[in-house]
Amino acid sequence: MSELRTVTVEREFSHPAEKLWRALTQPHLIEEWLMKNDFVPVPGHKFTLSREPKPGVKVVVDCEVIEVEPQKSLTYRWSAFGLDSVVTFTLTPTATGTVLRMDQSGFGPDQTRAFNGAKASWPQMLEALDEVLRNLE
User: Fold this and answer.
1) pTM
2) 5-134 adopts what CATH topology?
C-alpha cells in the first residue's frame, strides 16, 4: 500500500485560544476566512463548505465533524474532487497568543495536484483567519 501524505501548516496568532476557537467554530466567522458553511461543532454533524470562485463555478466540500475538544482541537472529514481527507486544527496557548497547527491528511501518491493545492491554499486561508481575528471583538 502506498504512503499517504499530510499537509501541515503552523502559525502563531497574537490572540488567545478562546478567540481562535470562535473563528474556527462559528459559521459566520468561518465564512469570512474559509467558505460558506452550515457547521455545528458536534461530532457526527455533516456539513458543507462552499464557495463560488468565479461565476458559474461552485466548489463544494462535504464534511463531517469527527472530534471536538473546545479551545484545544477540532477534527473533521473533508471530501471533494475525489479526495477523502481529514483536517485537524490543534490550538496551543503561548505566552503571547496561540499556535494553530492545521494538518490535512489522506493525500494519496496520485493526488499531487490536490496536495500541492492544499500546501498553497492553507497558508492563505490562515492569513485570512488572522485578518478575521484582528477585526473580532
Assistant:
1) 0.94
2) Alpha-D-Glucose-1,6-Bisphosphate; Chain A, domain 4 (3.30.530)
